[in-house]
Amino acid sequence: MSDDNVIEVTDKDGWKKTFPLEKAIIYVGSDPRNDIVLDATRGSGVARRHLQLISVTGGTGYRAINMGDSEVKYGPQGENTLNPRAFVELNPGEKVRLGDFVLSFQGEAPSTFDSADDGLLSAGDKRSRSIGLRLNLPSNQLGLDQPIDGTVTVRNWGTKTGVQFKLEVDGLDPACLEIGPGPLLFPNAEKEVAFRVHHPRAAKPPAGDYRLRIRASAPAAYPGESAIVTQVIQVLPYFSHKVRLTNL
User: Fold this and answer.
1) Residues 135 and 97 occupy one common structural domain
2) Boundary (domain end) residue, out of 53, 77, 106
3) Distances (CA, A) of 74 to 29, 68, 77, 103, 132
4) Are residues 82 and 179 in the same domain?
5) Can you give the CATH number for the domain in which 78 is found?
6) Distance (Å, rounded) from C-alpha 52 to C-alpha 123?
7) Which residues pair with 28 in a beta bridge?
């Protein structure tokens, strides 16, 4: 990836800092756990986790998801509006305004699904030369009536034909997780598989962040190899109330 792939952040007083785009999924917000932290001491109007950036296949830009509760301005001059929970494709040269901060995109985003030499891509934490895996989530917030519907794209980077892939997902109660069957693929072929995450609708596990993990393997064709993609899921609170009537 080129050193020109960066986001330049400017605050209300003209202070600037450049952040390299080195990951396929990047979080922006005021919480110190984000990849790009917009410090509240330098400006206001930024949610703890305000923006999710997902690199677009082919390295031409980023998909920006507004995870905050207020509108976000974007475009070459910041003339467009991105509503809460909506997303837009951003290209180099465009700007995003988050509260008192302006984010300027420069260069090209890293490809989420590149070559066999890159092995596992897109938020992955394990590499394989024969198995490619890409994760696509429209949101990472899991509410009672707001399931997360995403996809994983599996690719056969190897030379074996008719490879049967196996998909496994964990990180929450198995009853909350649904995923389609692993595909049968020939060399250089790929297929998108849908999955859904449901809210547990219980007091346990408590609300908070949980790491969802999807693993692809092909034991018969590529023994010992697997590809893994991970994503942090934010489980929203669950409230249960009881009413008891008594006679006075």
Assistant:
1) no
2) 106
3) 16, 14, 7, 9, 32
4) no
5) 2.60.200.20
6) 13
7) 36, 51
Q: What is the pLDDT of residues 12-67, one digit of tens each?
A: 888 899 988 877 788 999 999 999 999 888 889 999 999 988 776 444 567 788 88
Per the DSSP assignment, residues forming a β-bridge with 168 are 215
Whether the pTM exceeds 0.70: the reply is: no
Residue in this structure with the two tokens 């509240």, named with its chain if needed: 40
What is the C-alpha to C-alpha distance for residues 215 and 116, in angstroms, rounded to an integer? 17
Strand partners, 87: 65
Q: How far apart are CA 234 and CA 96, in angstroms?
A: 24
- Is residue 24 a part of any domain in this protein? yes
Rounded to whole angstroms, the Cα distance separating 156 from 145 reads 35
**Beta partners for residue 170, in sequence order:** 213
Q: Are residues 87 and 181 in the same domain?
A: no
